[in-house]
Write a structure and sequence with these properties.
With 156 residues, the protein is an all-alpha fold. The protein has a domain of 61 residues. The chain contains six helices and no strands. The relative contact order is 0.05.
Length: 156
């Protein structure tokens, strides 16, 4: 009568909205799902969702949104489990670091470097294309349908 028949332990790793009541309902929901009573589990899941919603609403109602937006977003991050500062691992990993890593672990002995393709006719380092040549090329374009870039000929 005075002592609970079961105990529920809420740890620091649990989200803040997981109260002892919510944790107990989650355990009951798992038992119902494992025993195949899907309808009762769905009804209990709805109750769990409402309990979590009530907790989050109460927590957010304690924050004065109009005067302190910073504290409101801090509370939202706390409730959702996100942090303001992302991991700094993205600043130490660059495309060059990834490329070097995968180049060192590559074990394909039959790999051959692909040939460099020439994208123009008679290309050499000394050739220079003038503005007048580009104007003539664009001026003589036939008005056809758009290409892969979806740019019509009249636009060019």
């Amino acid at each position: 009568m005075y002592y609970p028949e079961q105990s529920v332990t809420v740890t620091s790793s649990d989200p803040p909205y997981v109260t002892p009541v919510v944790k107990y309902m989650l355990r009951q929901n798992n038992k119902l799902l494992r025993s195949g009573r899907i309808e009762k589990a769905a009804a209990l899941a709805t109750k769990i969702g409402l309990a979590i919603e009530d907790y989050n609403s109460a927590e957010l109602s304690r924050v004065n949104v109009m005067s302190n937006a910073k504290s409101m977003w801090s509370k939202v991050r706390q409730l959702t489990g996100r942090s303001k500062h992302l991991d700094n691992c993205h600043s130490t990993i660059s495309a060059e670091v990834l490329n070097d890593h995968y180049a060192t672990i590559s074990t394909d002995v039959h790999y051959t470097v692909p040939r460099v393709k020439s994208t123009c006719n008679n290309c050499d380092a000394s050739s220079h294309v003038s503005e007048w040549q580009i104007f003539n090329i664009l001026d003589t374009l036939r008005p056809t349908s758009t290409g892969l870039d979806n740019i019509p000929a009249w636009f060019l």
